[in-house]
Amino acid sequence: MMEPEFRVFSLFLVLCFLIPVSVGAQGGPEADRITGLPGQPSNVGFSQYSGYVTVDLHSGRALFYWLIESRPPSSATPLVLWLNGGPGCSSIAYGAAEEVGPFRVNPDGQTLFLNNYAWNSLANILFLESPAGVGFSYSNTSSDLYTAGDQRTAEDAYTFLLNWFERFPQYKYRDLYIAGESYAGHYVPQLSQIIFRRNQCIQNSVINFKGFMVGNAVTDDFHDYVGTFEYWWTHGLISDATYRTLRLTCDFQSSEHPSVECQKALNVASTEQGNIDPYSIFTRPCNNTASLRRNLRATQPWMSRAYDPCTERHSKVYFNRPEVQKALHANLTGIPYPWETCSDVVGNYWADSPRSMLPIYQELIAAGLRIWVYSGDTDSVVPVTATRYSIDALKLPTLIKWYPWYDNGKVGGWSQVYQGLTFVTVRGAGHEVPLHRPRQAFILFRSFLQNKPMPRS
Predict the structure, then answer these.
(1) How many whole angstroms separate alpha carbon 227 and alpha carbon 154?
(2) DSSP state, 94?
(3) HSE-CB for 325 with a 13 A CA cutoff
(4) d(CA 79, CA 59)
(5) 386 and 226 in contact (C-beta within 8 Å)?
(6) For the chain, what is the radius of gyration of the CA atoms?
(7) Residues catalogued as catalytic
(8) Residues carrying CATH 3.40.50.1820, the chain
(9) Is the pTM of this model over 0.85?
(10) How far is CA 113 from its chain centroid?
(11) How confident is the model at residue 8 (pLDDT cuts 50, 70, 90)?
C-alpha cells in the first residue's frame, strides 16, 4: 500500500509534468496595438491591445483577449485578468463593454462613451473570451465547441497566460489578480488553483499570482440551490408550493445538469416570477424578454449610461461591425457565425462541472492567497443568500464582524472579514455589480487591491 507522503509526492510530480509547453510569443505586442476604435472618444489617455493567442496547435484553439492598460501607466500597477461566465458568455460583451471596461456602447450601436469608473484607473485589465467558441475565440476543430467543460477551460486559460506573457514580457513577474462573476465562480478558483500548484514546480515563475475576487459566483450546487430558492420565496417571487417542490426535487442536484423533476419545478418558478429581469429584480427588463434565461446558468443582463436594460443589443450591433472587428484584430479567420454575447452551443453542451468549489477555497485560503467574494443583493440568479450559505460552509473564524460600509455617508452595502476571506455585499446591485453600482464597485475593487476592509465611514 502506498504511503500518504509518497502519494502526495507522486501527485506533485504529475502536476509538474502537466505544465504545458509554451507555443511561443506568436508575434510582438505592437502587432496587437489598437490605434483607435470606431466611434471611440478622443484623447482616452491609455493604450489598448487585442488579438489572438493560440492555446492548442493541434486542434487550432485560439483565445481572444483585449488588454486595457492603466492610466497613468506605471510598471508597479498590477495586472487583473477578468473572466465572465455563462458558461459560454463573452468577457468583451459584459466585463469590458458594460461593467469594468473604459467604454460603453451607445444605443446607436455605432459610438462609444467613457465609463467614469473604469477599473483601468487602478490596474491593467486583461479581458479574455473563454473557452474557444465564445465571442471571437475559436477552434479549427468544430467538436471542441460541443465538448467544452471546466477542466479544459482552466487548462486553456493557463496556457493562454503563459503564451501571453511571452508576447508581453513587460508584465512578467507583475502582481497578478484574477476577477470574474457568475459561472466564473468556477473559472476563477479553478484557474487560480492551477497557477498556484504549477508555481510550486517553477522557480521564480513569471506568473506572480496574488489572489482572486469573484462576484455573484456559482460556488457550491447544494448551497446555491438552497440559497436561491430561499431568496425567491422570501422576496415573493414564487409560491409556497413551488418553494417546497424545489427544495424536494433540486437539493443535491447539479446546477448545470439538473434532473428532469428539478427542471420542471424550475420552469414553474420561471412562470410564477413573470416578466422580470431575474438578474436585477427591481429594474425593468429589456422589451425583448425572449432572451431572458431564467435558470441557474448565470448569464448576464442588459444596460447603459444611466440604466438602459438593452445594452446587450447595442453590443451585438457594435461588435459585429466589420470595421470594429478590423480595429480589434478580431475574426481574422472568418468565423462562420456572428459574434454573440453568449454561445448557446458552448453553454448547452457544457461537459464537466464539479458540484463544489469549496475544496479549492480551502486549499487556496490555506496557501495565504487574497480571496474576496462580493454579491449584489438584488440578483435572484446567484443571490446573496446562496453565497452566504457557501461561505458559512467553510466555517472560517471571523476577524471583523458584519458591519455596514459607506460611500459619501450612505450605506453602500455590508461586509464581514473572515480569516482568509473577505465578503462584501453591494446594496441595490444586481448580478453585474459594476453595471448597477459602478462607483460602489470601484470602491470595492480599490479596497481589494489595497487589501483593506471596506470603509466604515
Answers:
(1) 27
(2) I
(3) 18
(4) 29
(5) yes
(6) 21
(7) 182, 379, 431
(8) 4-221+354-371
(9) yes
(10) 23
(11) very low
Over residues 42-47, the mean pLDDT reads 90
Residues 199-237 have pLDDT tens digits of 998 888 999 999 999 999 999 999 999 999 999 999 999
- Stretch 311-330: mean pLDDT, rounded? 94
Residue type, 404: P
pLDDT in the model for residue 10: 43
Instruction: Note whether 431 and 181 are within 8 A (CB).
Output: yes
DSSP 180-230: EETTHHHHHHHHHHHHHHHHTTSTT-S-EEEEEEEES---BHHHHHHHHHH
Q: What is the rounded CA–CA span in Å between residue 175 and residue 351?
A: 32
Rounded Cα gap, residues 296 and 253, in angstroms: 12
- Asked whether the predicted pLDDT for residue 303 surpasses 70, the reply is no
Position 58: which residue type? Answer: H
Task: Report phi then psi at 23, rounded to 5.
Answer: -95, 15
Is the CATH number of domain 4-221+354-371 3.40.50.1820? yes
Question: Three-class SS of residue 234?
Answer: helix
The C-alpha atoms of residue 232 and residue 294 are separated, in whole angstroms, by 12
